Backbone:
């Protein structure tokens, strides 16, 4: 059967290096697992060989779906868009892992969706653009540290496993790639309003060169005495996850105080 034609609008770059594919597959040792965008099954074949993995694949590309059905008839395959799919339909209860050679143009959206199921996804791994991988795994004080770093690291321990060159893909992407692994940490709740936490993080990093007192005044009001607290003199890339939680608690208390005075 003919190979699948890579489609630019789907961000398809098919991995051709079997050693890299095997190493990615080994990042998930066992359990129920969803593979996103299997394409021509270069990663799928190794996942299927693992007797400890129960695999379900989600693929949006019809040409890839036809190819996979031909070559991997044993694969439980769903044709659809992962970003729009209700994962509770696949696994109504219990835990499941997520893996893939993720389309680079939607990788951030994929990780935000993983966050929606964070209490059911203990492990998420795969290949993404190197720059995004560095962002996810970055620690406070680094240039790459940003919104994705904080929101994901609040719930996951993130490992940057290894880099991958462009020449092992067809067609080769214009960027380098990297493989990461995200393991759910022990934090079950943040101890603050999670929606407000996201808002605080995004608002802070949208003006990352400014001190918190400047970027967050829109949340607490200009000239608010709370802005004199030490934490508000820092810039967002200096703050740890715990400090962002502390910051959110301060903003939350302030908002409650304002409501009680209305």
Residues:
């Amino acid at each position: 059967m003919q190979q699948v034609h890579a489609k630019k609008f789907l961000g398809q770059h098919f991995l051709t290096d079997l050693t890299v594919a095997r190493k990615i597959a080994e990042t998930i040792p066992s359990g129920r697992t969803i593979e996103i965008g299997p394409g021509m099954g270069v990663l799928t074949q190794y996942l299927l060989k693992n007797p400890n993995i129960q695999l379900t694949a989600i693929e949006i590309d019809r040409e890839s779906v036809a190819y996979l059905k031909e070559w991997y008839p044993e694969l439980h395959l769903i044709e659809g868009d992962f970003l729009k799919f209700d994962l509770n339909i696949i696994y109504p209860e219990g835990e499941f892992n997520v893996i893939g050679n993720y389309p680079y143009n939607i990788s951030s959206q994929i990780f935000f969706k993983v966050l929606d199921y964070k209490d059911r996804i203990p492990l998420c791994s795969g290949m993404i653009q190197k720059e995004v991988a560095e962002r996810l795994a970055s620690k406070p004080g680094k240039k790459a540290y940003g919104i994705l770093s904080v929101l994901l690291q609040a719930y996951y321990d993130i490992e940057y496993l290894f880099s991958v060159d462009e020449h092992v893909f067809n067609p080769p992407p214009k960027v380098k790639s990297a493989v990461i692994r995200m393991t759910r940490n022990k934090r079950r709740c943040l101890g603050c309003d999670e929606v407000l936490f996201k808002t605080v993080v995004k608002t802070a990093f949208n003006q990352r060169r400014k001190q918190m007192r400047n970027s967050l005044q829109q949340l607490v009001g200009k000239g608010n005495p709370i802005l004199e607290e030490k934490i508000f003199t820092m810039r967002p890339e200096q703050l740890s996850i715990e400090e962002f939680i502390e910051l959110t608690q301060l903003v939350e208390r302030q908002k409650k105080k304002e409501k009680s005075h209305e």
Summary: Residues 194-260 form a domain with the Helicase, Ruva Protein; domain 3 fold (CATH 1.10.8.100). The chain has two domains: 8-184, 194-260. The chain has a mean pLDDT of 91.
